[in-house]
């Protein structure tokens, strides 16, 4: 199992959190998505490491920006 933490900017409410969570959950192998609204920290647990481009694409599809990955 792989866990990665990202920072997403632009989320301001619980619906934003739902949108980001749903988009990221659709990526192959994603098991869990945890979003902390106040900080924008997003922790994604997946079977294999995810390409950053895929994560960025999902976040942007939801309407937000990926500003860091680790
Ligand atoms: Mo409500 Mo969150 O417009 O973008 S869904 S603030």
From TrEMBL:
Keyword Secreted carried by entry: no
One example GO MF annotation: copper ion binding
Superkingdom of this protein's organism: Bacteria
Keyword Metal-binding annotated: yes
PROSITE patterns associated with the record: HMA_1 (PS01047), HMA_2 (PS50846)
Biological processes per GO annotation: copper ion transport
CDD domains listed in its UniProt record: HMA
Start and end residues of each HMA domain: 2-67
Stated name of the protein: Heavy-metal-associated domain-containing protein
InterPro entries: Cu-bd, Heavy-metal-associated_CS, HMA_dom, HMA_dom_sf
Membrane-spanning ranges: none
Keywords in alphabetical order: Metal-binding
């Amino acid at each position: 199992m792989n866990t990665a933490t990202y920072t997403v900017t632009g989320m301001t409410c619980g619906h934003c959190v739902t949108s980001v969570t749903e988009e990221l959950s659709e990526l192959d192998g994603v098991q869990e998505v945890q979003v902390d609204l106040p900080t924008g920290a997003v922790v994604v647990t997946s079977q294999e490491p995810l390409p950053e481009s895929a994560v960025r694409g999902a976040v942007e599809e939801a309407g937000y920006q990926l500003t860091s990955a680790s």
